[in-house]
Specification:
Strand content: 5-15%
Low-confidence stretches: 1-58
Helix content: 40-55%
Largest sheet: 4 strands, antiparallel
Mean pLDDT: 77
Radius of gyration: 30 Å
Strand order of the largest sheet: 4-5-6-7
Amino acid sequence: MAEAEGRTHEGSEREKTITRVTMFDSSAKVLSMVPRTLTPPPSIASVNVATLSLAGVNMKSGKVYPHREGFRVYFRGDWYTSDEFGRPFKHQFYALSFLDLLNSLYDPDPRKNRYDPSRFKKKGPYEFEKACELYLEQKEIESGWISGKKSIARTHLIPFFGSQDFRTIDGVQLEALKKDLKEKGLSGKTIWNVFTVLHAMLNYKTFRSAFYSFPEFPDLKYQKPKIQWRTDQEIDQVFEFLQKEDLGYYWSIRGYGFRPEEASGLLKTAVNKQTNEVLVRTVYVNRRMKSRTKTNSERMIPMEICPEAMKYLIDDKLNRSSDSVFVFTSNGRPYSSDMWRERWNKAMDQAVKKYGTRTMTTRDLRHSAATRWRLKRVPLDLIRKLLGHSTQKTTDTFYADVDLHQVANMLRS
């Protein structure tokens, strides 16, 4: 049984027809309510809505995207899932009509512009920008790595999602974000980092529980950078130009595979001269000591695996009288990122000038340490523990094929 009611109103601009149809079954229970329909204005009727896809439907400015059981509108950095009265866009025509309205209000001339996002967007506790701020303030996030996440949020995420209700983010919109980042010319690694931060935020315990349905993230792949490793001869050529007081710092990276920030943050109390072990659990980042490493883990390294590095740790540093709690210091200060990078680059430039040495970074020293362990048949699971990788997959990806490099070098010699 169908019941229809119709009313016709004559307006100065065009005729509007509002029709409501309610369907009942034999038990007189409401099955569905078909929303009102409006006669499309000429500017909208000409749009081919059949072309609506992941790429969205373009208007003068802005786009319309499919969203869950309806549609959403993107206009000048803001997302809308409902009109000014809070009515969701269940049909593409409503979304296109709303976008046409926004275009009619906007003017690049500030004196003529009547577009005000606050008129259409209701503020609430689920705004994406506010959620970002709350997430980045959580104590669970190590402050040593917070600057990178803040940069990604400010540069890529907040400009894209704005004040949108983060609970309405879905797979279609995530695909649109991926496309937008690619169009900006960002590398696959950078795009992967952006989505990693976004996923961590939305998956945070406080926010995850707010979702009716957690969005499906796109499968991202990128070409991992090739690990560079250098021979002892090449590294010695650079070490020749390092200052004597700096040798211990760089030997800890070369011999033990420390990350530079781990060598900077190494405490005297972490070095046990009785057992000849060193405990890696602190870092020095942004001129502050942090209590956790990059992978939020700690590891014990036997100093005997590199006698040269052990010599500098014990003889040249620990046995010296110093008030600093850090093992490696220069003029009483721990090595900041600017300090160790500047001193390494200076020595590197001199080695290139004198010997034609292939350029390398301090990260390459760490990779070279792992490569030497691999060539000596150290099992990959032990290399993972020495390097402090969070997963075995990371170690396998970078060092599983080191033997192939060795064979290639032998054949060329």
